[in-house]
Design brief:
Low-confidence stretches: 216-227, 230-237
Radius of gyration: 28 Å
Strand order of the largest sheet: 2-3-1-4-5-6
Number of strands: 6
Number of domains: 2
Largest sheet: 6 strands, mixed
Shape: elongated
Distance between the termini: 111 Å
Helix content: 40-55%
Structural class: alpha/beta
Length: 237
């Protein structure tokens, strides 16, 4: 009888160990599944913020980033700058070389612009079509102008042939910059609007150049002597 009870006890202990082992296996499998789910969610979040063609930030990410940067600058009382960028005569490029070549051109331009921004805290995004936009925190008028003209020169230096461009032999860009100190009464759309109007003026002036709105007093903005940076006409008079 005692041997029978001992046998049952040993058998029960083995069963407990088996169940504990299976529980550990299930726990490890569950942990691995959770890890895979987290990785998948991270990938989905990244896909939601990345432009599928160029691999840089998309318009949605730009909007979220600008609003966050705007709030931070409002708190810190620091300037925020935006650069609106457009590839010159891109429709003519597409018509000449085809949409596949156009996509390749967009990718090369996007990669160069992304690298050219430099600072980790800034953002370069595809705004839509052949337009791009940069958000620069703690960057004043002169800093935005200098970066915009450096980006313009870097794109021209790629020497991507563009026989139907009216401003040179190569693919070029036009840039409009704007800088604001956020306030409780202002909105980031105002900053984007100013940069967009400056870009429009750059295109009217002949393209392959950088234009900035006037200083608050209407004075010309000091810029590097590149010949490609001009002040935005003051329309308040």
């Amino acid at each position: 009888m005692a041997f029978h009870h001992l046998s049952n006890w040993v058998g029960g202990a083995d069963r407990v160990q088996e169940l504990e082992g299976r529980a550990r296996e299930l726990e490890a499998m569950l942990e691995e599944r959770n890890h895979q789910l987290e990785e998948a969610n991270r990938a989905l979040r990244k896909m939601a913020t990345i432009d599928g063609l160029t691999g840089i930030a998309n318009h949605r990410h730009f909007r979220d980033f600008l609003e966050a940067e705007w709030r931070r600058a409002l708190r810190d009382r620091s300037p925020v700058s935006v650069i609106m960028i457009d590839i010159d005569y891109f429709k003519a490029y597409n018509d000449t070389f085809g949409h596949q070549a156009g996509d390749d051109c967009l990718r090369r331009v996007a990669e160069t612009l992304h690298r050219g921004v430099g600072r980790a805290g800034d953002l370069m995004a595809r705004y839509g079509g052949e337009e791009f936009v940069a958000v620069l925190g703690e960057t004043d008028v002169d800093g935005a102008l200098a970066l915009a003209d450096r980006l313009r020169a870097q794109i021209e230096a790629l020497r991507i042939p563009h026989p139907r461009s009216l401003c040179g032999r190569w693919v070029t860009i036009s840039c409009g910059t704007a800088t604001m100190f956020p306030s409780q009464d202002s909105h980031p759309d105002e900053l984007v609007g100013e940069a967009d109007r400056a870009l429009y003026q750059a295109k009217r002036e002949g393209r392959n150049r950088v234009v900035t709105p006037p200083a608050p007093a209407g004075d010309a903005v000091p810029v590097a002597a590149t010949g490609s940076v001009v002040p935005f006409p003051d329309r308040r008079h």
